[in-house]
Amino acid sequence: MMRIAIAKDRAFNFTYRENIDRLAEMGELTFFSPLAGDELPDADLVYLPGGYPELFAPELAMNRMLASQLVQYAEKGGRIFAECGGMMYLGKSLTDQDGKVWPMAGVLPIECTMQGARLHLGYRSMEIDGKVFKGHEFHYSNVKKGTVPNSTFLRRI
Question: What is the pTM of this model?
Fold first, then answer.
């Protein structure tokens, strides 16, 4: 049975019940809190949902153990499903609205910012290997350095 680790705390709290239900059908769920300083549980899949990492950037930046574990997990071929704030956390850094730069996990070669935040909202679709994936975009952050990785890179990590 697949082991699925899900980040769940005040920084990562945007989850849809349906997503959790589908993941529960796929395997055994374990929840962990990056804010509480938890380490990465043993997992075949890690889910980092959306939320408010920008409001908890200092606390997230202090959990260097988890950041290191996520990088090692990805480098060894571990699968990570991240969205919204979870994707921001996987980047190199997060700049808050005051311009303070906080180190994040460093799995992805991007630097995110909340400076000059404006709403990005709408339905989006993308194609990977001939399959169309549809989703909803709702965020205020921007990537200030680096580019959001393409699907080949994302499959690799």
Answer: 0.80
